[in-house]
């Protein structure tokens, strides 16, 4: 629908992303919690998300990789920390090895994803919390905003289909 807004807060070491979708909460929830849906929109083109395993439950995890256009694979791991079904969830996102071992050289981020009903539309609020401002700066320099914007636009198109 509209463009996503990004607010950086260096003091709190977080980035808040907001976007309104012309779709009910249950469709957004499904898109964030179902591996077949995630694989269709997560990540910036020409990269594609490929899920190895997803257990969307408290203390569950998502193990996936981003497949690049030249055969690259960037493995990632999300630990689901808290889930309020249909409303919000929190997860810890990290880069990892194919085996799932976390790569400590790259930043990990805690994601809090919340959905609000606004006149039959859904406001999505994503707050990314970083361990340090250095980690926050690394993610920004890695192209987080551009990449996440592309993914959110792909989600918008998927919800319209």
What is the name of the CATH class of the domain at 48-132? Alpha Beta
What structural class do you assign from the helix and strand content?
Answer: alpha+beta
Task: Report strand order across the widest sheet.
Answer: 1-2-8-7-6-5-4-3
Q: What proportion of the residues is helical, as a percent range?
A: 25-40%
Shape: globular
According to CATH, the fold-level topology of the domain at 48-132 is Alpha-D-Glucose-1,6-Bisphosphate, Chain A, domain 4
Task: Figure out the total of helices.
Answer: 4
Family: Belongs to the AHA1 family.
InterPro entries: ASHA1/2-like_C, START-like_dom_sf
Pfam families: AHSA1 (PF08327)
Protein name: Activator of Hsp90 ATPase homologue 1/2-like C-terminal domain-containing protein
What features would you describe in this structure?
The chain is of the alpha+beta class and 161 residues long. It has a domain at 48-132: Alpha-D-Glucose-1,6-Bisphosphate, Chain A, domain 4 (2-Layer Sandwich). The protein is 26% helix and 42% strand. The protein contains 4 helices and 8 strands. It has helices spanning 25-33, 35-41, 133-141, 144-160; strands at 5-9, 14-21, 48-54, 61-67, 73-84, 88-95, 109-118, 121-130. An 8-stranded antiparallel sheet has the order 1-2-8-7-6-5-4-3. The chain is globular and about 45 Å long. The two termini are 13 Å apart.
């Amino acid at each position: 629908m509209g463009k996503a807004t990004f607010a950086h807060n260096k003091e709190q070491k977080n980035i808040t992303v907001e976007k309104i979708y012309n779709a009910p909460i249950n469709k957004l929830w499904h898109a964030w919690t179902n591996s077949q849906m995630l694989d269709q929109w997560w990540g910036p083109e020409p990269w594609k998300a490929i899920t190895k395993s997803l257990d969307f439950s408290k203390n569950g995890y998502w193990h996936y990789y981003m497949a690049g256009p030249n055969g690259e694979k960037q493995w990632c791991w999300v630990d689901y920390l808290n889930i309020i079904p249909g409303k919000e969830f929190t997860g810890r996102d990290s880069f990892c090895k194919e085996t799932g071992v976390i790569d400590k050289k790259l930043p990990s981020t805690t994601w809090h994803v919340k959905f609000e009903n606004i006149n039959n539309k859904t406001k999505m609020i994503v707050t990314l919390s970083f361990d340090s401002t250095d980690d926050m700066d690394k993610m920004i320099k890695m192209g987080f905003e551009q990449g996440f914007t592309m993914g959110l636009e792909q989600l918008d198109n998927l919800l319209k289909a």
